[in-house]
Amino acid sequence: MINIIEDLEIGELEETNYIKPIKVKFTLNGVKKTWEAVRSHDSVAILLYNVEKKAFLLVKQFRIPVYLNDKSIKYTYELCAGLVDKNKSIEEIAVEEIDEECGYKVKIEDLKKITSFFTNVGVSGAKQHLFFTIVNDSQKIHNGGGINDEQIELFFLDENKIDDLLFDESKAKTPGLMFSLYWFLKNKDKLGL
Amino acid sequence: MINIIEDLEIGELEETNYIKPIKVKFTLNGVKKTWEAVRSHDSVAILLYNVEKKAFLLVKQFRIPVYLNDKSIKYTYELCAGLVDKNKSIEEIAVEEIDEECGYKVKIEDLKKITSFFTNVGVSGAKQHLFFTIVNDSQKIHNGGGINDEQIELFFLDENKIDDLLFDESKAKTPGLMFSLYWFLKNKDKLGL
């Protein structure tokens, strides 16, 4: 994945559609406090394991907030994921994201919920629901890559190369991805894999 | 930990000290884009293992962004952690946070860097540096709990109770904590524990 970034401009955030910055005042155990926060959507993320390739299907994506922090990072390694921003169940959204981003057809009943967690407790407080699903090549229905110019690239991570990715700090990744890969290793036998 | 929350008010975020909402415009591979983001600080987090108690020392903390998302969550389970917001090395900041939050005296050379990751790639792009350290009871120098009204409570997680915490979705936690606990399980023998 080669990403060419040009014409970068950073301005004030006035009207917002996706995130909402807020100032919160409250009293905690009798002590008055204020906090700067951002409201954002919850999300779903799915670890996809291609049983024929013995590899995980991850997505590579340009993330402007990460790039602004470290200009050497032209893409991040992530789980297939999406926002819970429509009136559908988290399972329905997970299945849609697997289709849109990865091009695989998965049934809701083939999703296994792993657990959930809060990805940014200090700022956004958004929750992520984590799923696992096994796919095979016959479920591939199109190339994936996301919709609306998402510019997502697919990446197969060999199941024997997990630590090569996790401990290479030049490769930006999320802790949810990291946890899910170690969950897989711990549960591989139980999953019959 | 009982947290009583009163007088909750949510207002516009006008002047900010901790986070900076921004609107970013850029061209990615020839396609013009805009993105709503927040600049915030990188952080350090430390998994502390008390070798005498055979337990991890975690912190319980009230997090207003999480509470706004789900009013049933009065505290989160987290790693000892702190912002990289001063002119010190990440190792120096880690040692300070272990002292302030947990009340243990740890030497920089006893910190083991695990890896790093990006905790919120879509909004803040902040990086977290993850460390591990082994402590014993003789290193306990005070009660901990944080400074400036941080109201942090310490919590020992028995090393045999990891999955009880990770898969209880009523207990809010971060994916960095979850990954670090599974990293410990995978490396326990190598660490001589």
From TrEMBL, chains A, B:
GO CC term, one of those recorded: cytoplasm
Pfam name, any one: NUDIX
Motif Nudix box location, chain numbering: 82-104
InterPro entries given in the database record: NDP_pyrophosphatase, NUDIX_hydrolase-like_dom_sf, NUDIX_hydrolase_dom
Subcellular location: Cytoplasm
Keyword field contains Magnesium: yes
GO molecular function: metal ion binding; UDP-sugar diphosphatase activity
Binding site for Mg(2+): 81, 97, 101, 150
Nudix hydrolase domain sequence ranges: 39-179
Keywords: Cytoplasm, Hydrolase, Magnesium, Metal-binding
Co-factor(s): Mg(2+)
One GO-annotated biological process of the protein: nucleoside phosphate metabolic process
Tagged with keyword rRNA processing: no
Quaternary structure annotation from Swiss-Prot or TrEMBL: Homodimer.
Protein name: NUDIX hydrolase
Source organism of the structure: Aliarcobacter cibarius
Taxonomic placement: Bacteria, Pseudomonadati, Campylobacterota, Epsilonproteobacteria, Campylobacterales
